[in-house]
Amino acid sequence: MRIARFSIDGNVAFGAVEGDPTSGPGGPGSLDGLVVDIIKGVPFADFELSGTKVPLGGSGSVRLLPPVLPSKVVAIGRNYAAHAAELGNEVPDAPWAFFKPSTSVIGPGDSIVYPSFSHEVHHEAELAVVIGRLCREVPRERVKDVILGYTCANDVTARDTQRSEKQWARAKGFDSSCPLGPWIETGIDLAGAADLAITATVNGELRQAGRTGQMIHSIEDLVVNVSEAMTLLPGDVILTGTPAGVGPLTPGDEVAVTIEGIGTLTNKVISRG
């Protein structure tokens, strides 16, 4: 099931997306031809479909929002060897975690606002793990039970700031630096999520192309490692790292992250107004 969070006539709701986003009339990534069946309740507990369906594409009043509003986004750095190498970094022995604040989260179609303190902003396409239940110290064999599903993410990074400051809080956590979406795919199991194609394009030009199977530390490794230190809440997100090919974004660019079996997350870059 693909679970979206959306607004309609000023109200926010969750719904189940129906239709094939890869073969609609608008082409791959388009919302044309898709409808969303409004959920009674929230996806973190038992829920029912209302049977009330509204179209996602076209000029209607429905707008996709970030699929969750996480209390925290825990991101993992240098989890692909080729990406670590392209930036001249060593591969860490254990998962290397950092935070992106909730205020960094935006949804599909929202604008990435180029920060005033940076002159070198990069895209980083990533698989995002969405936590479905309160958990702490999750054993490896229970990891599958605490994951609601997966979505696309872009760990937008002020690379010059990352190099110049010891902590990555500003470089990785500025407003609009964490696009998520377009929805949560709940129909992928751990084995499937362990080998998905992931790409990033900028203005239609392929920049990144990898597979989640290239991750150094697996999804199980990451959930175990993070939950050893902190309680994870429903809707929290773990970013799993980016494959090689990261590169610059400039105002006016359109960046799209596509993950096999999930969908396409598209955002435009704008200057701060």
Give a structural overview.
The chain has 273 residues and is mainly β. It has six helices and 20 strands. It folds into two domains: 63 residues, Roll (SH3 type barrels), CATH 2.30.30; 199 residues, Fumarylacetoacetate hydrolase, domain 2 (Alpha-Beta Complex). Helix content is 13%, strand content 40%. The chain is globular, with a radius of gyration of 18 Å. The termini are far apart. 44% of the residues are buried.
SSE topology sketch:
Layout: E1 2-8, E2 11-18, E3 35-40, E4 48-55, E5 62-64, E6 73-77, H1 81-86, E7 96-100, E8 105-106, E9 111-114, E10 121-123, E11 125-131, H2 143-146, E12 147-154, E13 157-158, H3 159-164, H4 169-173, E14 178-185, H5 190-193, E15 197-202, E16 205-211, H6 219-229, E17 237-239, E18 247-249, E19 254-259, E20 263-271
Parallel strand pairs: 6-17, 8-14, 9-20
Antiparallel strand pairs: 1-2, 1-5, 1-14, 2-3, 3-4, 6-7, 10-13, 10-18, 11-12, 11-17, 12-14, 15-16, 15-19, 19-20
Distance between the termini: 38 Å
Order of helices and strands: EEEEEEHEEEEEHEEHHEHEEHEEEE
Share of β-strand residues:
35-45%
Please identify which CATH superfamily of the largest domain we are dealing with.
Fumarylacetoacetase-like, C-terminal domain
Number of helical regions: 6
Structure in a nutshell:
The protein is mainly β. 13% of the residues lie in helices and 40% in strands.
